[in-house]
Prior knowledge:
Oligomer: single chain
Largest sheet: 5 strands, mixed
Strand content: 15-25%
Structural class: alpha+beta
Distance between the termini: 91 Å
Number of strands: 19
Helix content: 25-40%
Strand order of the largest sheet: 2-1-10-5-6
Number of helices: 12
Shape: globular
Amino acid sequence: MTADMTSSRVRVPTRSALLLGLASGFVAQAIWSAGYGFDLAPFPPFDAADLFIRFAPGNVATWGIETFGHTAQQIILAGGIALWLALGSAIGAVTRAAPGKRSRALTLIAYISLALVCALANASLPHGGRRVVALAILVAGSSVATLLLHSWVIRRAEIASQEAEARATSSNWLAAAGDIDRRSFLQHVAGTTLLIASSGLALGWLGRRAGAGAVVTAADTDLADARAAAELAGELPPLPLPAPAGPFPDQFDAPPDVRPRFTPTADFYVVDISTRDPAIPERGWALRVHGRVERELAVDWPTLLSMPAVEQFGTLMCISYTHGSDLISTTRWTGVPLRDVLQQSGIGSGVVDVVLRGAHGYSDSIPLATALDPATLLAYGMNGRTLPRQHGFPCRVIIPGLYGEKNVKWLDEIELVDFDYLGYWQERGWTDIAIVNTLSTIDTPRLDVFRDAGGVVPVGGIAFAGDRGIARVELSVDGGDWMETLLEPYNPAAVWQRWRYDWMPAPGQYRLTVRATDGVGHVQPDTDRPPHPDGQTGLYRTSITVF
């Protein structure tokens, strides 16, 4: 009887087959985690999530992005691990039902099928297909590791079968000194698998940590240091940084719990269409300008830093903002006016839109007149530092007065076209104009509040109207007359405006309503409208109890 015939007749014990399957899943997960951590290959669950976001209806994609945000990475990672374990369990079931060559063949077919699906998913994404070779290597490694585990388990099953037969046919059978019983065998497999899996997961974690600082060398660094590094390398002529914008006066006494004048970078809101932020090194990056231009340009990192820069304060707001959400933030941007680059390229005739494309496959457009506004920036700095990776390093566009969807991150291409270009969100039913609607909020008080010693309850919040500025903020109590509030003195048009009202109520329950008037005299509309497709409208109201 040949070994193959023997193995085909051997029935692998259920516990051994299950352990084999879980071990296969753990080993494959470890190998793929290490590959993804060192940016050698894609991670299939992330690719699947990104494809879902790109092809799902606009309202579904928006719900997913807004609901899960960056926590989606942890959720998808956990789901990916569960997927590998499920695949491993299926492999174990195959081994139980069809041991020997058939199980090995079926396992190999499963891995090859998975590789094809992953390769197609990755190639369908922006910049996909670059790591197909690494993908094949990882699949091969996973397959080999699993097949070795198969051979080990099946061989142990053969030995166990032979030992059982020897026991049945011999009354004086003795176990050999090197034999391993089933429990010890299972412990050996479990221990080896956990060692391999933990090593792979640890390598993946270390790779991601190392990659965050090594791949993008100038992200989230001091702007002066970034310039000094470029000058030291002989890539820049000496050029001072722009004078700081501001300063803001400090005499305004904002009520407690009103958001600060500027948002710390760590708290600045983030909304993306992908589960992972592109990792773009400044060396090798270039912003391509083409289309209806007199000459094509490729603006690299040193060139961008060497151009005359400006600083301006600005508030950025997501079109999905709803009353009380955190999808609005304010910071100090540093960059080059977009018009300076367009003028270098030479604007051709008949241009209608300026198309902005990011490295992660996102795109949008703005009218030529908006692109030529001196306040529209190619921003590379944020609050005195280069852009963090999640905010678009090396370069993004900042367009005062328009919702965040137009402010494309990871910018690597500008095209001038002679038609109205519809971008990512416009194809999903969102507005192409994206002008910020006037908003006002009550940050404090919330729910229960106590009067101070003088019987005063400070009320405060913010108001914002894009680049139109804020002329007035008014407060109403229980639907009564509108009372004008105190605005913070310094009022740059493109920055949110904080306000305060010292209210002296009697104890009781009240309903407060706030409204703003923008800088051109338009009162905030009181009609409630959801964010889709043009941004939320309506007045902010809150109910409180005063003690």
